[in-house]
Specification:
Layout: E1 6-9, E2 18-24, H1 28-35, E3 46-54, E4 57-67, E5 78-84, H2 87-99, E6 103-104, H3 109-116, H4 122-133, H5 137-147, H6 152-174, H7 186-215, E7 217-223, H8 229-237, E8 255-261, E9 264-270, H9 280-291, E10 298-304, H10 311-319, E11 325-330, E12 349-352, H11 361-371, H12 387-408, H13 413-431, H14 437-444
Parallel strand pairs: 1-6, 7-9, 7-10, 10-11, 11-12
Antiparallel strand pairs: 1-2, 2-5, 3-4, 4-5, 8-9
Length: 451
Protein backbone atom coordinates (compact mmCIF):
# COMPACT_ATOMS: atom_id res chain seq x y z
CA UNK A 1 0.00 0.00 0.00
CA UNK A 2 1.44 3.38 -1.07
CA UNK A 3 1.01 5.85 1.77
CA UNK A 4 3.33 8.78 0.99
CA UNK A 5 3.07 11.64 -1.48
CA UNK A 6 5.93 12.30 -3.88
CA UNK A 7 7.09 15.38 -5.76
CA UNK A 8 9.57 15.95 -8.62
CA UNK A 9 10.09 18.18 -11.64
CA UNK A 10 8.36 16.71 -14.71
CA UNK A 11 10.49 18.94 -16.94
CA UNK A 12 14.26 19.34 -16.94
CA UNK A 13 15.82 21.65 -14.37
CA UNK A 14 17.06 24.19 -16.92
CA UNK A 15 16.16 27.79 -17.75
CA UNK A 16 12.98 27.59 -19.84
CA UNK A 17 9.64 29.31 -20.41
CA UNK A 18 7.54 27.00 -18.22
CA UNK A 19 8.46 24.23 -15.77
CA UNK A 20 6.10 21.52 -14.54
CA UNK A 21 6.25 20.08 -11.03
CA UNK A 22 4.30 16.87 -10.37
CA UNK A 23 2.83 15.96 -6.98
CA UNK A 24 1.23 12.52 -6.56
CA UNK A 25 -0.20 10.62 -3.61
CA UNK A 26 -2.94 10.58 -0.99
CA UNK A 27 -1.95 13.97 0.48
CA UNK A 28 -1.54 15.85 -2.82
CA UNK A 29 -4.55 18.14 -2.27
CA UNK A 30 -3.74 18.72 1.38
CA UNK A 31 -0.16 19.71 0.50
CA UNK A 32 -1.04 22.08 -2.35
CA UNK A 33 -3.58 23.84 -0.16
CA UNK A 34 -0.83 24.54 2.36
CA UNK A 35 1.15 26.57 -0.19
CA UNK A 36 -1.39 27.89 -2.72
CA UNK A 37 -3.20 31.22 -2.54
CA UNK A 38 -6.61 29.68 -3.33
CA UNK A 39 -8.48 26.63 -2.12
CA UNK A 40 -8.06 23.76 -4.62
CA UNK A 41 -11.18 21.65 -4.43
CA UNK A 42 -10.97 17.92 -4.98
CA UNK A 43 -12.83 17.98 -8.28
CA UNK A 44 -12.13 16.45 -11.68
CA UNK A 45 -9.65 18.12 -14.04
CA UNK A 46 -9.50 21.69 -12.76
CA UNK A 47 -7.10 24.44 -13.82
CA UNK A 48 -6.62 27.14 -11.17
CA UNK A 49 -4.62 30.36 -11.44
CA UNK A 50 -2.92 31.75 -8.35
CA UNK A 51 0.31 32.07 -6.34
CA UNK A 52 2.62 29.66 -4.53
CA UNK A 53 3.36 31.17 -1.13
CA UNK A 54 5.64 30.30 1.78
CA UNK A 55 3.50 31.82 4.55
CA UNK A 56 3.19 35.45 3.37
CA UNK A 57 6.12 35.32 0.92
CA UNK A 58 5.09 34.91 -2.74
CA UNK A 59 7.38 32.50 -4.60
CA UNK A 60 5.73 32.39 -8.04
CA UNK A 61 2.61 32.93 -10.10
CA UNK A 62 1.39 29.53 -11.34
CA UNK A 63 -1.33 27.43 -12.95
CA UNK A 64 -2.48 24.39 -10.97
CA UNK A 65 -3.83 21.35 -12.84
CA UNK A 66 -5.58 18.89 -10.55
CA UNK A 67 -6.60 15.25 -11.08
CA UNK A 68 -8.62 13.02 -8.75
CA UNK A 69 -7.80 9.33 -8.27
CA UNK A 70 -8.12 7.05 -10.12
CA UNK A 71 -8.41 9.38 -13.14
CA UNK A 72 -4.74 10.36 -13.40
CA UNK A 73 -1.53 8.97 -14.87
CA UNK A 74 -0.46 7.38 -11.57
CA UNK A 75 -3.99 6.40 -10.53
CA UNK A 76 -3.55 8.63 -7.45
CA UNK A 77 -4.55 12.20 -6.62
CA UNK A 78 -2.20 14.30 -8.75
CA UNK A 79 -1.39 18.02 -8.79
CA UNK A 80 0.71 19.50 -11.60
CA UNK A 81 2.15 22.96 -10.98
CA UNK A 82 2.96 24.99 -14.10
CA UNK A 83 5.42 27.61 -12.89
CA UNK A 84 7.88 29.97 -14.54
CA UNK A 85 10.83 27.99 -15.81
CA UNK A 86 13.70 29.34 -13.76
CA UNK A 87 15.84 26.73 -12.00
CA UNK A 88 15.76 28.69 -8.72
CA UNK A 89 11.98 29.18 -8.59
CA UNK A 90 11.37 25.52 -9.51
CA UNK A 91 13.67 24.21 -6.78
CA UNK A 92 12.16 26.63 -4.23
CA UNK A 93 8.64 25.30 -4.90
CA UNK A 94 9.83 21.68 -4.66
CA UNK A 95 11.72 22.41 -1.43
CA UNK A 96 8.63 24.07 0.02
CA UNK A 97 6.44 21.03 -0.76
CA UNK A 98 9.04 18.72 0.80
CA UNK A 99 9.09 20.94 3.89
CA UNK A 100 5.30 20.59 4.10
CA UNK A 101 5.49 16.76 4.00
CA UNK A 102 6.08 15.49 0.44
CA UNK A 103 8.97 13.18 -0.42
CA UNK A 104 11.26 13.77 -3.40
CA UNK A 105 10.45 11.08 -5.97
CA UNK A 106 12.91 8.46 -7.14
CA UNK A 107 13.66 8.28 -10.89
CA UNK A 108 10.72 6.61 -12.65
CA UNK A 109 8.59 6.47 -9.50
CA UNK A 110 5.53 8.09 -11.08
CA UNK A 111 5.53 5.41 -13.81
CA UNK A 112 6.14 2.73 -11.18
CA UNK A 113 3.08 3.90 -9.26
CA UNK A 114 1.05 3.91 -12.48
CA UNK A 115 2.03 0.26 -12.97
CA UNK A 116 1.31 -0.72 -9.35
CA UNK A 117 -2.10 0.96 -9.60
CA UNK A 118 -2.92 -0.97 -12.81
CA UNK A 119 -2.92 2.12 -15.02
CA UNK A 120 -0.26 0.67 -17.32
CA UNK A 121 1.32 -2.76 -17.87
CA UNK A 122 5.06 -3.45 -18.06
CA UNK A 123 5.17 -3.23 -21.86
CA UNK A 124 3.62 0.24 -21.64
CA UNK A 125 5.98 1.18 -18.80
CA UNK A 126 9.01 0.25 -20.92
CA UNK A 127 7.48 2.17 -23.84
CA UNK A 128 7.47 5.40 -21.79
CA UNK A 129 11.23 5.20 -21.34
CA UNK A 130 11.70 4.15 -24.98
CA UNK A 131 9.66 7.18 -26.08
CA UNK A 132 11.84 9.57 -24.09
CA UNK A 133 15.05 8.00 -25.45
CA UNK A 134 13.93 7.47 -29.07
CA UNK A 135 16.60 8.58 -31.57
CA UNK A 136 14.84 7.88 -34.88
CA UNK A 137 11.38 7.69 -36.43
CA UNK A 138 11.21 3.91 -36.23
CA UNK A 139 12.09 3.62 -32.53
CA UNK A 140 9.54 6.39 -31.89
CA UNK A 141 6.90 4.34 -33.72
CA UNK A 142 7.77 1.21 -31.67
CA UNK A 143 7.33 3.19 -28.45
CA UNK A 144 4.04 4.78 -29.53
CA UNK A 145 2.59 1.42 -30.61
CA UNK A 146 3.49 -0.21 -27.29
CA UNK A 147 2.40 2.80 -25.23
CA UNK A 148 -1.07 2.68 -26.81
CA UNK A 149 -1.43 -0.87 -25.51
CA UNK A 150 -2.86 -1.94 -28.88
CA UNK A 151 -0.83 -5.14 -28.83
CA UNK A 152 -1.62 -6.38 -25.31
CA UNK A 153 -4.35 -8.57 -26.80
CA UNK A 154 -1.63 -10.64 -28.53
CA UNK A 155 0.03 -11.61 -25.24
CA UNK A 156 -3.37 -12.32 -23.68
CA UNK A 157 -4.33 -14.39 -26.72
CA UNK A 158 -1.18 -16.52 -26.40
CA UNK A 159 -1.79 -16.98 -22.67
CA UNK A 160 -5.40 -18.02 -23.35
CA UNK A 161 -4.25 -20.51 -25.98
CA UNK A 162 -1.75 -22.03 -23.56
CA UNK A 163 -4.35 -22.10 -20.78
CA UNK A 164 -6.78 -23.93 -23.06
CA UNK A 165 -4.15 -26.60 -23.86
CA UNK A 166 -3.16 -26.89 -20.17
CA UNK A 167 -6.81 -27.26 -19.11
CA UNK A 168 -7.44 -30.02 -21.66
CA UNK A 169 -4.37 -31.92 -20.50
CA UNK A 170 -5.25 -31.54 -16.80
CA UNK A 171 -8.79 -32.83 -17.40
CA UNK A 172 -7.28 -35.89 -19.06
CA UNK A 173 -4.94 -36.37 -16.09
CA UNK A 174 -7.64 -35.90 -13.42
CA UNK A 175 -10.52 -37.73 -15.14
CA UNK A 176 -9.01 -40.39 -17.43
CA UNK A 177 -12.03 -42.68 -16.92
CA UNK A 178 -14.45 -40.29 -18.65
CA UNK A 179 -14.45 -40.56 -22.43
CA UNK A 180 -14.91 -37.34 -24.33
CA UNK A 181 -14.21 -35.05 -21.35
CA UNK A 182 -11.38 -32.70 -22.31
CA UNK A 183 -10.34 -35.25 -24.89
CA UNK A 184 -7.55 -33.90 -27.08
CA UNK A 185 -5.25 -35.92 -29.34
CA UNK A 186 -1.47 -35.64 -29.53
CA UNK A 187 -1.87 -34.49 -33.13
CA UNK A 188 -4.16 -31.63 -32.09
CA UNK A 189 -1.78 -30.61 -29.31
CA UNK A 190 1.27 -30.56 -31.58
CA UNK A 191 -0.65 -28.61 -34.24
CA UNK A 192 -1.62 -25.93 -31.71
CA UNK A 193 1.91 -25.74 -30.30
CA UNK A 194 3.51 -25.46 -33.76
CA UNK A 195 1.17 -22.57 -34.62
CA UNK A 196 1.80 -20.79 -31.31
CA UNK A 197 5.58 -21.24 -31.51
CA UNK A 198 5.59 -19.80 -35.05
CA UNK A 199 3.87 -16.63 -33.81
CA UNK A 200 6.26 -16.25 -30.87
CA UNK A 201 9.26 -16.84 -33.17
CA UNK A 202 8.01 -14.15 -35.56
CA UNK A 203 7.75 -11.59 -32.72
CA UNK A 204 11.26 -12.50 -31.50
CA UNK A 205 12.67 -12.03 -35.00
CA UNK A 206 10.99 -8.64 -35.42
CA UNK A 207 12.02 -7.59 -31.90
CA UNK A 208 15.70 -8.42 -32.43
CA UNK A 209 15.76 -6.28 -35.57
CA UNK A 210 13.78 -3.64 -33.68
CA UNK A 211 16.31 -3.60 -30.84
CA UNK A 212 19.18 -3.03 -33.27
CA UNK A 213 17.26 -0.16 -34.89
CA UNK A 214 16.34 1.25 -31.48
CA UNK A 215 19.94 1.17 -30.21
CA UNK A 216 21.41 2.28 -33.53
CA UNK A 217 22.90 -0.05 -36.15
CA UNK A 218 26.64 -0.57 -35.61
CA UNK A 219 28.03 -0.16 -39.14
CA UNK A 220 31.69 -1.11 -39.62
CA UNK A 221 33.60 0.14 -42.68
CA UNK A 222 36.39 -2.25 -43.70
CA UNK A 223 38.73 -2.45 -46.67
CA UNK A 224 42.29 -2.07 -47.90
CA UNK A 225 44.08 1.26 -47.59
CA UNK A 226 43.06 3.94 -50.09
CA UNK A 227 39.80 2.38 -51.25
CA UNK A 228 37.77 5.35 -49.94
CA UNK A 229 36.65 4.21 -46.49
CA UNK A 230 37.15 7.59 -44.85
CA UNK A 231 35.59 9.34 -47.83
CA UNK A 232 32.57 7.05 -47.42
CA UNK A 233 32.33 7.95 -43.71
CA UNK A 234 32.43 11.64 -44.61
CA UNK A 235 29.80 11.18 -47.34
CA UNK A 236 27.46 9.39 -44.94
CA UNK A 237 28.06 11.94 -42.19
CA UNK A 238 27.91 14.86 -44.66
CA UNK A 239 30.90 16.40 -42.93
CA UNK A 240 34.68 16.06 -42.87
CA UNK A 241 34.77 13.62 -39.95
CA UNK A 242 37.87 11.71 -41.10
CA UNK A 243 41.08 12.90 -42.72
CA UNK A 244 41.23 11.91 -46.40
CA UNK A 245 44.54 11.54 -48.27
CA UNK A 246 45.97 9.71 -51.28
CA UNK A 247 48.66 8.32 -48.97
CA UNK A 248 47.88 4.74 -47.93
CA UNK A 249 47.49 4.18 -44.18
CA UNK A 250 46.25 7.68 -43.32
CA UNK A 251 43.58 6.29 -40.94
CA UNK A 252 45.33 4.42 -38.16
CA UNK A 253 42.72 4.46 -35.39
CA UNK A 254 38.98 4.02 -35.03
CA UNK A 255 36.91 7.01 -36.19
CA UNK A 256 33.25 6.99 -35.15
CA UNK A 257 30.18 8.97 -36.13
CA UNK A 258 26.42 8.80 -35.60
CA UNK A 259 23.73 9.77 -38.12
CA UNK A 260 20.01 9.40 -38.69
CA UNK A 261 19.35 7.87 -42.09
CA UNK A 262 15.62 8.41 -42.53
CA UNK A 263 13.96 6.02 -40.06
CA UNK A 264 17.29 4.44 -39.00
CA UNK A 265 20.17 5.49 -36.73
CA UNK A 266 23.64 4.40 -37.81
CA UNK A 267 26.64 4.20 -35.48
CA UNK A 268 29.36 4.30 -38.13
CA UNK A 269 32.89 3.07 -37.43
CA UNK A 270 35.74 3.80 -39.87
CA UNK A 271 38.88 1.73 -39.46
CA UNK A 272 42.49 1.47 -40.53
CA UNK A 273 43.09 -0.05 -43.96
CA UNK A 274 43.66 -3.82 -43.74
CA UNK A 275 47.01 -4.90 -45.20
CA UNK A 276 50.32 -6.53 -44.25
CA UNK A 277 52.56 -3.85 -42.77
CA UNK A 278 55.74 -3.50 -40.71
CA UNK A 279 54.62 -0.21 -39.15
CA UNK A 280 53.86 -0.92 -35.47
CA UNK A 281 51.31 1.91 -35.08
CA UNK A 282 49.48 0.84 -38.23
CA UNK A 283 49.50 -2.78 -36.98
CA UNK A 284 47.69 -1.68 -33.79
CA UNK A 285 45.07 0.13 -35.90
CA UNK A 286 44.54 -2.95 -38.09
CA UNK A 287 44.18 -5.15 -34.99
CA UNK A 288 41.55 -2.76 -33.61
CA UNK A 289 39.71 -2.87 -36.93
CA UNK A 290 39.51 -6.67 -36.85
CA UNK A 291 38.32 -6.64 -33.22
CA UNK A 292 35.43 -4.35 -34.20
CA UNK A 293 34.01 -7.06 -36.47
CA UNK A 294 32.50 -8.92 -33.50
CA UNK A 295 30.35 -6.01 -32.32
CA UNK A 296 29.28 -4.87 -35.80
CA UNK A 297 25.67 -5.39 -36.89
CA UNK A 298 26.50 -4.56 -40.49
CA UNK A 299 29.87 -4.63 -42.27
CA UNK A 300 30.60 -2.54 -45.35
CA UNK A 301 33.45 -4.13 -47.34
CA UNK A 302 34.78 -1.29 -49.50
CA UNK A 303 36.53 -2.29 -52.73
CA UNK A 304 38.29 -0.07 -55.28
CA UNK A 305 36.43 -0.79 -58.53
CA UNK A 306 39.43 0.29 -60.60
CA UNK A 307 41.75 -2.37 -59.14
CA UNK A 308 41.87 -6.14 -59.20
CA UNK A 309 40.56 -7.96 -56.12
CA UNK A 310 43.60 -8.26 -53.85
CA UNK A 311 44.60 -11.03 -51.46
CA UNK A 312 43.93 -8.70 -48.48
CA UNK A 313 40.37 -8.08 -49.67
CA UNK A 314 39.81 -11.81 -50.20
CA UNK A 315 40.96 -12.40 -46.61
CA UNK A 316 38.50 -9.75 -45.40
CA UNK A 317 35.66 -11.42 -47.31
CA UNK A 318 36.50 -14.72 -45.58
CA UNK A 319 36.84 -13.03 -42.18
CA UNK A 320 33.36 -11.49 -42.44
CA UNK A 321 31.60 -14.38 -44.19
CA UNK A 322 29.18 -14.98 -41.28
CA UNK A 323 28.32 -11.27 -40.79
CA UNK A 324 25.53 -9.29 -42.38
CA UNK A 325 27.38 -7.22 -44.95
CA UNK A 326 27.22 -5.13 -48.10
CA UNK A 327 29.97 -5.26 -50.75
CA UNK A 328 30.61 -1.64 -51.68
CA UNK A 329 32.35 -1.00 -55.02
CA UNK A 330 33.73 2.54 -54.76
CA UNK A 331 35.30 4.75 -57.50
CA UNK A 332 32.73 3.51 -59.97
CA UNK A 333 33.26 6.79 -61.84
CA UNK A 334 36.68 5.53 -62.97
CA UNK A 335 35.46 2.48 -64.93
CA UNK A 336 32.61 1.11 -67.01
CA UNK A 337 30.36 -0.62 -64.42
CA UNK A 338 29.45 -3.28 -66.98
CA UNK A 339 33.04 -4.56 -66.84
CA UNK A 340 32.87 -5.32 -63.11
CA UNK A 341 33.16 -9.02 -62.29
CA UNK A 342 30.11 -9.27 -60.01
CA UNK A 343 29.16 -12.91 -60.60
CA UNK A 344 31.21 -14.10 -57.59
CA UNK A 345 29.05 -11.80 -55.41
CA UNK A 346 25.66 -12.86 -56.81
CA UNK A 347 24.39 -13.94 -53.35
CA UNK A 348 25.59 -10.72 -51.69
CA UNK A 349 24.11 -7.28 -51.30
CA UNK A 350 26.09 -4.99 -53.62
CA UNK A 351 26.31 -1.21 -53.91
CA UNK A 352 28.10 0.68 -56.69
CA UNK A 353 29.12 4.14 -55.47
CA UNK A 354 31.43 7.07 -56.08
CA UNK A 355 32.40 8.99 -52.96
CA UNK A 356 34.25 11.60 -54.99
CA UNK A 357 30.91 12.55 -56.60
CA UNK A 358 29.02 11.98 -53.32
CA UNK A 359 27.00 9.34 -55.17
CA UNK A 360 26.14 6.86 -52.40
CA UNK A 361 22.41 6.46 -52.98
CA UNK A 362 22.79 2.78 -53.96
CA UNK A 363 24.43 2.04 -50.58
CA UNK A 364 21.77 3.98 -48.65
CA UNK A 365 19.08 1.93 -50.42
CA UNK A 366 20.83 -1.35 -49.55
CA UNK A 367 21.10 -0.37 -45.87
CA UNK A 368 17.42 0.54 -45.81
CA UNK A 369 16.44 -2.76 -47.45
CA UNK A 370 18.57 -4.69 -44.95
CA UNK A 371 16.91 -3.28 -41.83
CA UNK A 372 13.71 -1.45 -42.57
CA UNK A 373 10.54 -3.18 -43.71
CA UNK A 374 6.88 -2.32 -43.31
CA UNK A 375 5.92 -5.13 -40.93
CA UNK A 376 8.10 -3.58 -38.22
CA UNK A 377 5.95 -0.46 -37.90
CA UNK A 378 2.49 -1.81 -38.65
CA UNK A 379 0.07 -0.90 -35.87
CA UNK A 380 -0.69 -4.57 -35.18
CA UNK A 381 2.96 -5.65 -34.96
CA UNK A 382 4.32 -6.28 -31.47
CA UNK A 383 7.99 -5.22 -31.43
CA UNK A 384 9.80 -5.37 -28.08
CA UNK A 385 13.12 -3.53 -27.96
CA UNK A 386 14.07 -4.27 -24.37
CA UNK A 387 16.63 -7.07 -23.94
CA UNK A 388 14.85 -8.52 -20.90
CA UNK A 389 11.53 -8.64 -22.78
CA UNK A 390 13.14 -10.43 -25.74
CA UNK A 391 14.87 -12.86 -23.36
CA UNK A 392 11.52 -13.69 -21.72
CA UNK A 393 9.97 -14.41 -25.14
CA UNK A 394 12.92 -16.66 -26.06
CA UNK A 395 12.35 -18.64 -22.86
CA UNK A 396 8.65 -18.95 -23.74
CA UNK A 397 9.66 -20.20 -27.19
CA UNK A 398 11.99 -22.81 -25.65
CA UNK A 399 9.34 -24.09 -23.21
CA UNK A 400 6.83 -24.48 -26.05
CA UNK A 401 9.49 -26.27 -28.12
CA UNK A 402 10.25 -28.61 -25.19
CA UNK A 403 6.55 -29.36 -24.75
CA UNK A 404 6.23 -30.17 -28.44
CA UNK A 405 9.27 -32.49 -28.38
CA UNK A 406 7.99 -34.25 -25.26
CA UNK A 407 4.63 -34.93 -26.93
CA UNK A 408 6.33 -36.23 -30.08
CA UNK A 409 8.55 -38.48 -27.95
CA UNK A 410 5.51 -39.83 -26.04
CA UNK A 411 6.44 -38.40 -22.65
CA UNK A 412 3.66 -38.40 -20.02
CA UNK A 413 1.28 -35.46 -20.45
CA UNK A 414 1.95 -34.17 -16.91
CA UNK A 415 5.59 -33.60 -17.93
CA UNK A 416 4.38 -31.73 -21.02
CA UNK A 417 2.22 -29.58 -18.79
CA UNK A 418 5.20 -28.43 -16.69
CA UNK A 419 6.73 -26.67 -19.72
CA UNK A 420 3.38 -25.23 -20.79
CA UNK A 421 2.77 -23.82 -17.29
CA UNK A 422 6.24 -22.22 -17.36
CA UNK A 423 5.54 -20.61 -20.76
CA UNK A 424 2.17 -19.29 -19.54
CA UNK A 425 3.74 -17.85 -16.38
CA UNK A 426 6.54 -16.09 -18.32
CA UNK A 427 4.03 -14.43 -20.64
CA UNK A 428 2.48 -13.05 -17.45
CA UNK A 429 5.90 -11.73 -16.43
CA UNK A 430 6.09 -9.89 -19.74
CA UNK A 431 3.04 -7.73 -19.02
CA UNK A 432 3.61 -7.55 -15.26
CA UNK A 433 1.01 -10.03 -13.99
CA UNK A 434 3.83 -11.47 -11.87
CA UNK A 435 6.70 -9.26 -10.74
CA UNK A 436 9.55 -9.00 -8.31
CA UNK A 437 9.89 -5.76 -6.30
CA UNK A 438 13.68 -5.62 -6.72
CA UNK A 439 13.35 -6.11 -10.48
CA UNK A 440 10.77 -3.32 -10.65
CA UNK A 441 12.98 -0.95 -8.66
CA UNK A 442 15.93 -1.65 -10.96
CA UNK A 443 13.83 -1.19 -14.08
CA UNK A 444 12.20 2.10 -13.10
CA UNK A 445 15.44 3.55 -11.68
CA UNK A 446 16.65 3.91 -15.29
CA UNK A 447 13.92 6.46 -15.99
CA UNK A 448 14.39 10.20 -15.68
CA UNK A 449 12.97 12.20 -12.78
CA UNK A 450 9.32 13.14 -13.07
CA UNK A 451 8.47 10.04 -15.13
Amino acid sequence: MISDTIVAPATALVKQAVAIIRLSGPDAYQLINKVFSKKVEKKENQITFGYIKDDSKVIDQVLIMSFVAPHSFTGEDVIEINCHGGVLVTTQIISLLIKKGARFANPGEFSQRAFLNNKINLIQAEAINDLVNATNETSLKFAINNLQNSNLHLIKKYRDQLLDIIANIEVNIDYPEYDGVGDVSAEELTEKLVSLKAEITRIIKLSKIGKIINDGINVLILGEPNVGKSSLLNALMQEEKAIVSNEAGTTRDIVEGKINLGPLTLNIIDTAGIRDTVNEIEKIGISKAKNEINRADLVLIVIDSSRELSLDTKKLLTLTADKQRIIVFNKIDLIDPRKLALTKFKTERIALISTVNNNIEALVNQIMESYYFEELTKNDSLVLVNLNQISLLEKVENFIKNAYNNIVNNYPVDIVNVDLHSAWYLLGDLIGENYDDNLLNTMFSKYCLGK
